[in-house]
Specification:
This protein is α/β, with parallel strands linked by helices. It has two domains: about 120 residues, Alpha Horseshoe (Serine Threonine Protein Phosphatase 5, Tetratricopeptide repeat), CATH 1.25.40.10; about 240 residues, Metallo-dependent phosphatases (Purple Acid Phosphatase, chain A, domain 2, 4-Layer Sandwich). Helices cover about 45% and strands about 20% of the residues. The protein is built from 15 helices and 13 strands. The protein has a six-stranded mixed beta sheet with strand order 5-6-8-9-11-10, with helices on one face. β2, α11 and β3 form a beta-alpha-beta unit. α2 packs parallel to α4 and α4 runs antiparallel to α5.
Length: about 375
């Protein structure tokens, strides 16, 4: 244990002892003002010791101290801010997001310009060793552009991240446009900042978004101006793409204003329509739902040829009911290269390979890296 931590620990013990004494006295001689003052002092000491633990990479000890600081003084915004960094580094994005919102509400001046934690920088573009990131992913994608591939995305890019708390996903627009997908399905985190914000955000992207089984309850059109399907002619074949989501996350993300249609029923109907009425050779379902629901879709809809799923943030490849179901990963660490060989009009073979972006094979795309630099105003945690 460092000398600084030892000294702070002694100071904390002294403060706790003084508080205990005051609380006993206050039963007969109330001195709430002094107690409140000591609680604030104790919170600052916990916060400072937590930061020292953080620097020593003792994340659990740091998180415990930030929690004690918050318990001692719930108005100490910087303690929420610092605890958010711990949650984020430990991949607990939901808790990080909640703490960060509270931190900015309590004390905006502490957080307004402290946009990027180390993990956020690593996630997007600023790392010394290969560890994924948008700038490296663009280079990896571009290495396959000569194949004239279909580029498809299964949702959750606007959020969650600490930076998106401030930018509302602004920093992901140049990333998406550099990757240049042919289409995407909405993820639940695309709705984190409201439907109106998503609508304006979408207009700055250069590709269609799909929402095949959720409709606006007033206009009866696909929710949030999505498309029901998208058809792409490539390599002398016609590909039909639909975007399906599960009901479970809709209530939390949309709250109201939508009509949900069962993804198996809609998937079957749309896939049959695409093949029978639109002369589609191959139907791809982009999904944003949990594995069990992707399995239900694979087992229940023979007309869908390939399922590319998001939401679980865990890269996996499975074969279910003789069709590939492939889950995207997280933080731009990998993507799938899928080769489809058509043997005849109804028979095909699929080969799927994971492309690891955490590799020295892919250097960061300097154009995108420079574009993203403006979002990284500071990399330090403020104490």
């Amino acid at each position: 244990m460092s000398e600084s931590i030892t000294q702070l620990s002694q100071s904390i013990d002294e403060c706790i002892h003084e508080l205990d004494s005051l609380r006993q006295l206050s039963q007969s001689d109330p001195n709430q003002h002094k107690i409140n003052s000591l609680c604030k002092s104790l919170a600052i000491r916990y916060n400072n010791r937590g930061f020292l633990y953080y620097k020593d990479i003792e994340f659990n000890l740091a998180a415990d101290d930030y929690t004690r600081a918050i318990q001692s003084d719930p108005s100490l915004g910087i303690a929420f801010y610092n605890r958010a960094t711990i949650h984020y580094r430990m991949n607990n994005f939901a808790k990080a997001y909640e703490d960060f919102k509270i931190a900015t509400q309590l004390d905006p001046k502490n957080c307004e310009f402290q946009l990027a934690f180390e993990q956020s920088c690593q996630q997007l573009n600023n790392c010394d060793e290969p560890s994924g990131g948008a700038a490296r992913l663009v280079t990896a994608f571009n290495s396959f552009r000569d194949c004239d591939p279909l580029v498809l995305f299964s949702g959750d890019i606007m959020s969650p991240s600490i930076m998106s708390t401030f930018t509302k996903g602004e920093q992901m627009i140049p990333v998406l446009n550099a990757l240049s997908p042919d289409c995407a399905v909405f993820g639940n985190h695309e709705f984190d900042f409201g439907v109106e914000h998503l609508d304006s955000w979408m207009k700055r992207t250069s590709f269609p978004w799909l929402m095949s089984n959720v409709y606006d309850n007033r206009s009866n059109r696909p929710f949030s101006n999505g498309k029901v399907w998208h058809i792409i002619d490539r390599h002398n074949k016609r590909f039909g793409i639909i975007g399906l989501v599960e009901e479970q996350w809709l209530a939390d993300s949309l709250h109201e204003g939508y009509v949900y249609r069962d993804f198996v029923t809609e998937g079957r109907k749309l896939a049959k329509h695409l093949k029978e009425k639109e002369s589609v050779d191959f139907v791809i379902a982009l999904t944003h739902m949990r594995w069990p629901n992707d399995c239900l879709l694979a087992e229940g809809v023979a007309e869908i040829d390939l399922i590319l799923g998001g939401h679980d943030h865990d890269y996996q490849i499975r074969k279910i009911n003789d069709k590939f179901c492939i889950k995207s990963g997280t933080d731009f660490r990998q993507f799938s290269k899928i080769d489809i060989k058509f043997i005849d009009s109804e028979e095909y073979e699929i080969e799927c390979n994971e492309i690891n972006v955490n590799s020295f094979d892919f250097k960061e795309d300097q154009t995108l890296k420079q574009e993203l630099q403006k979002y990284f105003i500071s990399h330090d945690i403020k104490v």
